[in-house]
Structures
1.
Amino acid sequence: MGLITQILTLPLAPVRGTVWVLDQVLLTAEREYYDPEPVRAELAELEQQLLSGRIGDEEFDRREDELLDRLEWLEANQQRLRANS
């Protein structure tokens, strides 16, 4: 970028900085949202609840199906994102 361009676009610097910060926040939020580890941890906790008798088989099956569907969706999304990178 030339000196004149920098001088002329100087008033836009705060906007560019704000856009960059928002982009970084969005990337971090997406990374956390698509992270399968919390779902895996929840599956492990669910199994512990079943083994300790805090939940029954029906509730375990229902919640496990929901978590496995979410995990499958997350892993498919990760593969799609890697393919597009």
2.
Amino acid sequence: MGDRYNIFSQMEHLQSKYVGTGHSDTTKWEWLTNQHRDSLASYIGHPDLLSHIAIAENETRARVRFNVLERMFQPCGPPPDRPNVD
């Protein structure tokens, strides 16, 4: 029983420390948004990948970087309406 509690406390610690790991109340939209933002941040963080995208889109690296940063704002669109719980 002690091991089980220890595992759950470690998971809770990781989930509070790293937003992208999710938790039991994470919605599908939140999880997808985190995944898209992680991917977009990776594109910006790897200059060779950013250059590849720039060549494919026939744009400058600065313009591609700007477009990727703009897409990070709401990568999956606006959040869905939550049911009103009273």
3.
Amino acid sequence: MARCPAALPTDHTPCVGPAAVTVLDADNAGADGCELHAARLLAALDRGHVLAPTHASAGAAHRVFKAAAPQDVRLHRLADALVSSPATPS
């Protein structure tokens, strides 16, 4: 059985369903994947993000994002984004 494009070469686990989201790297190169492999790929990327196509089940991108990083890492990224956000012009 073929695995989704988001499955890392070192990850031999089977897919947990059809391709549900697209994982994009910092250069916007992407791979479609099941929720399991998409979460693992997202966790391996620096500055990656996840998008849900219109046919995705409700909450798929959110579940992948939550599974990709431990809670403390997500909070640090949120804090960094808030601190480093550009100032609004006066």
4.
Amino acid sequence: MNLLLSLATLPIFATSSDGGFEAPTLDHEFNPAPFLFAGTPFEINRILMVRLIAVAVLVVLLVLYSKRAKLVPGRAQSAMESLLDFSRVQIGHEIIGEEEARRYQPLLMTIFLGILFMNITGVIPGLQIAGTSLVGMPLIFALVAYFAFIVAGIRTQGLAFFKHQLMPAGVPKPLYVLMIPLEFLSTFILRPITLTIRLLANMMAGHFLLVLCFLGTHFFYFEFSSVMGIGFGTLTLLGGIIFVIFELFVGALQAYIFAMLAAAYISLSISEH
């Protein structure tokens, strides 16, 4: 049991100088001290390390898949092909259309798999935090989707793309005085912000739930030594396990929603109307 709790809570908990229990702070969770190249532009802390690990694992899996793919796939190949097919069909074909989706599929697949792998690091013992639970990574994904939306629109419609986005057809001309600033605000300002906040908030909330559950388990088992403490600790441990499963679902769902919205924005930018 001690080994299970150590793996489940590492590195959530800190220990005070006298060896007692010390609750983690927001700085400890989301602003950890660098442990490599400190004081340089290349310094690495725990969250950046988690992101690098997620990217490295994803790259290795894709390279192995591309080099060892067989006509009759095994389990590992089938699992990877399921992810790729899901991105291609459920995100690309369903939203953009089969013909147009081919051009944007590499981008959509990168967004989907990148977010998915960074999300699930939040439930892996020893890593224990999602790479997308700090604003930098969600913002980068949002800006990539945002610029893809603009580039796709300009490539398809030229500079008339901006006119079509700001001046929807069928609106009485006097209303354009109101429509243009509203469309500019919603389409070109709020869109990347909402993409960022949606992903960030969901992953931060999941991390807080896991911290709360396993923090309670650690406290009740090792600091509140009584029958009541064991009972409460067991409840928080079960709650933590349930939330781990739930967080896996939320991580996959958020990756899908983000990639789906990116595809929807691209579809809107290349539509003739």
